[in-house]
Amino acid sequence: MEVDKVLLQRARAGDRDAFTELVEPHRRELQVHCYRMLGSLQDAEDALQETLLSAWIGLDGFEGRSSIRTWLYRIATNRCLNVLRSSSRRPPAATPFPVTPPPEPSRLGEVPWLQPYPDLLLDGLPGDDPGPEARYESREAISLAFVTAVQLLPPNQRAVLLLRDVLGYRAREAAEILGLTEPAVNSALKRARTTMDAQSTGRPTRGPEDPDLVERFVTAFTAQDVDALLALMTDDVWVRMPPLPFEYGGTEAVHRFFTVLAGHRREIAKMVPVGANRQPAWGEYIRDPVTGALHIVGVLVIGITGTRIHELTHFETTLAPYFGLPRTLD
């Protein structure tokens, strides 16, 4: 604590290096918090930068009644709430669907801004162990299923759920962070938990008991073997393609989707393994028939329950650099 006080004094005197040393231990966990709040890696990075700028400008307003970490969470959470309440926020533009007309979807998704989060940014994350009040394990609370479910909560409920059930802040602390009363926090938390339980989509995505599941998936996917793919999936599997709104649920709809798509899409020549949201993921590459070079066409993430795949989400190429995926391969 004495070191923090010295750094704080230097930072208040205008020493940017001291400020960086003061906030750097919390940078990565703050970005993950913003990601959970906003569901978008790019929006989370913007919110993080605004948080750090606001902290630098308002450092004299830090009174020391809470830790630097809690103070930064207060700023970050309220920045995210401002984004969520802003009418200027728009879903990202999607490239046209490769099939005309597209197969009839099971439903239209409500989270077109959803983006994956690279495991590279999660490794060795400070604060990866939740507080004593938390209900969700760290792995569960970063899964695509959980992040998607959280996006459907109203802003205040979303913030309260993350502060209380993910980060483990007590009701009094969450109330101070949000500028609410404890009864208001408890009421919002109760409603948020009810919604999350009803959705039943925030459950953990466990690793496969069958060690060959991922390998068999890659083989079936690259071969466009629809029957082999369906054999690896649960009966209530979902296929999603944000920012496109079309979602396909259940084996019949997913079979129809892949069957229609198979006649129009180029064969995936290479799948480069990466990690996203603590789930198996790949960069998808097709081969240019003229040059022979491999071009990335998307990032694919799967969710696994037991020995079956319950979710398959295809993302566009804009986030490939965050995963260390080059746009072309020889």
From TrEMBL:
InterPro entries: NTF2-like_dom_sf, RNA_pol_sigma-70-like, RNA_pol_sigma-70_dom, RNA_pol_sigma-G_actinobac, RNA_pol_sigma70_r2, RNA_pol_sigma70_r4_t2, RNA_pol_sigma_r2, RNA_pol_sigma_r3/r4-like
GO biological process: DNA-templated transcription initiation
Domain (RNA polymerase sigma-70 region) ranges: 22-90
Membrane-spanning residues: none
SnoaL-like domain segment(s): 214-262
Gene Ontology terms for molecular function: DNA binding; sigma factor activity
Organism: Kribbella capetownensis
CDD domains documented for this protein: Sigma70_r4 (cd06171)
Presence of the UniProt keyword Transcription regulation in the record: yes
Subunit structure: Interacts transiently with the RNA polymerase catalytic core formed by RpoA, RpoB, RpoC and RpoZ (2 alpha, 1 beta, 1 beta' and 1 omega subunit) to form the RNA polymerase holoenzyme that can initiate transcription.
Methyltransferase is among the record's keywords: no
Annotated family: Belongs to the sigma-70 factor family. ECF subfamily.
Protein name in UniProt: Sigma-70 family RNA polymerase sigma factor
SUPFAM superfamilies recorded: NTF2-like (SSF54427), Sigma2 domain of RNA polymerase sigma factors (SSF88946), Sigma3 and sigma4 domains of RNA polymerase sigma factors (SSF88659)
